[in-house]
Amino acid sequence: xxxxxEAEQLKPAFMKEVDSHFTEFVNNLxxxxxxxxxxxxxxxxxxxxxxxxxLKAKTLRAPPEHGKVFTARRSLLDELFEVSHIRxxxxxxxxxLIVFILSTLLVDFIDExxxxxxxxxxxxxFGKFPVVFCTWLCMFCATxxxxxxxxxxxxQGYCSSSRRAxxxxxYGMLFTLFQTAGLGLGPTYVAVSYAxxxxxxxxxxxxxxxxxxxxxSFIRENVPRVLCSVKDKSSTVPIPRISQYLYFLFxxxxxxxxxxxxxPTIRWxxxxxxxxxxxxxxxxxxxxxxxxxxxQFRNSSQETFNLRGLVLCIFNSILPGVLILxxxxxxxxxxxxxxxxEMLRFADRMxxxxxxxxxxxxxxxxxxNVVVHDWLYYYAYRDFLWFFGKKxxxxxxxxxxxxxxxxxxxxxxxxxxFFYPVLFCLFMCFGMVFNFILxxxxxxxIWNVIMWTSLFLGQGVIICLYSQEWYARHYCPVENPTFLDxxxxxxxxxxxxx
Length: 498
Known about the structure:
This protein has helices at 2-39, 51-56, 76-80, 84-112, 120-125, 129-158, 164-193, 198-231, 242-250, 268-297, 307-316, 318-343, 361-368, 370-388, 393-416, 422-437, 445-475, 483-487, 491-497. It is mostly helical.
C-alpha cells in the first residue's frame, strides 16, 4: 500500500515530464517538416526560376517567406472528442438543448393549452430564400468569370507588351472596379432594396466578403509568378487551370494554391454528421433566443432608461451571448468547414487552434479563426510591412485591426438594418488595448481567467445593446426616415417617446 501511495505522489511529476518532452519533440518535428516544405515549395514560383531569380523576386511580394504551408492535419475538436472526458462536455451541451426544448414546450402548453411546435422565428429570419439563392448564384458566377479572365488576358499579353505598367494599371483598375461595384455594391443593394430578413442578409453579405477575399488572394498569389517568369524569360506563362480556381472557390481556405494536400477518400457519414450538427446548432440558437433573449428584450423599450437597468441587461445577456459564441464557433468553424473539406478531400483542417487556452488577446485573435487570420496576416499585415517597412509594425497591426473592425461592423450594419458601432468600438478600443496589455508575455492561468472574463462581458454588451436597438427601431419607427435616422441610435431616445 505504501508503494502505491508513493507511486500516486510521483505520477503527476512523471506525467508532466513526459508531456514536456513529447511537446518538445512534436514541435521540433513540425518545425523541421515546415522547413522542408517551404524549401521545396514550388507553388509560388515556377521551377524554371533560378536561385538568383528567386532572390530578385523578393521585391515582388512580401519577404522573407513564400506564404502559408498547407499540410494534412485534423481539426482539434475531432481529436479532442476521442477523449471521453471532452466528449462528456459535448453531451452536457446536448442535455442543455433538451432542457431548452422541454422548457419551451411546457411553457407553451401551460399558456396555450396545447403543444406549439411552430418555428416562426426561423421562418422569418431565413425568409425570401429564392432571392438569396439567385443573388449568391450571380455573385459566384461573376467571381468565376471576371477575375480569372482578367488575369488570363493580362498574363498572356504582359510579356509582349511594350507598356507593361500601363497595361497592369488598366487591368488592376478593372479588377478593383469589379471588387467594389460588382461584388461590393451589388449584393448590398439587393439585401437592402429587397428588405431581406437578418439571417438571409447574413448569408448574402458573408458570401460577398468571402468571394472578395478569395478573388484578391487569387490575383495576389498569381501575379508574382507571372512577373517571375517574365524576368526569367520563360517560354511559358504560369496560368492556373480554371478547375484549380473553381476548387479554390469552394475550398475552406482564403489562401490560393494550385494544389492542396488531399485525402484519398470521402467519408460521407462524417459529412452527414457535420451537417446534422450544423442543423442542431441552428435549432439550439433558436431556443436560446426564444427562452433567454426575446422575453428579456421584448418590453425593454417600454422601461425608463437608467444605469441599473443597463448593467442588469448586460449581465443577463452574458449567458446567451456566450452560448451563441460557442455555437458560431462549433457550427461554422468546426462543422461547416469540415463538412466541405471532407467533400472536397481537403486535408488541412486547421481552421482554428486552441483559442480557449489563450492567456492573451494577441493569441486569441490568432487562434480563434485561422482561416481569416491567415488572409489578414499575409495580405494586410505583411504587405503593409513590405510596402512601408518593418519599422511600422504597430501601424501595420493598427491597420489590420481597423480593417477587421470595419468589415465586422459593415456586416452587422447591413444585416440588422441600422448603424450602431458597438462591435467597432469594442474592437478598436478595448480590443486594441487588451491586445497590447494581454500580450504573449502573459502566460499564467490568471491571464486565461482575465481573458475569459473580458470575453464574457464583451458578449453581454454586444447582445444587450444590439437587441435593445433592434426592438427600439421596432417600437419607435420613424416616418420617412432620412440617412441620418439610420445612423442615430434609436434606443437612446425611444424610452422618452414611450
